[in-house]
Design brief:
24% of the residues are buried. The longest helix has 13 residues. The chain is 21% helix and 39% strand. By secondary structure, the protein is of the alpha+beta class.
Length: 160
Amino acid sequence: MLILAAGVLAATEAAALSCMRPDVRRSYAQAEAAQERYSIVRGRLSFDTAQLPQPDLKNQRARTVTIPGRLSGHGLTAQGFAAPFDRAITLEVSCVGAWCGSARPGRDVLAFLRRDGAEYALEIGPCPFFLFPALDTAQIAAVVACHAGGPCDPDAPLPE
């Protein structure tokens, strides 16, 4: 019985999702290198949480749910987060296997919004890469420095 339990535990651990440590500098570099255009906004996200996808242990295929939402705050410019931003956006929440991206409305976030013409989309995967919900001054300073052409190494310590 002990051997069976160890086998089940090993299988569960092998199926665990492994994510790279989120870093605003890495996200900035990826957005800057992308063919698509991105806008970086610091603000408050609002949307209906009832529309968020739930993990589905029976359906292990990747899937994406689109949710209408709104982001109100300020966009990043050469002067920092200075451009007023209050727009409808589309949240693209994806699931991989049993893991789904998630967000909470009403909290301050830093979002990398993909621009699709006049529309804005926020990709939210199980491994957060374009949404940072727990902002601190070091993260804000780091993304502002990246935008100003300053140091932007995701492997370096965040500025204090």
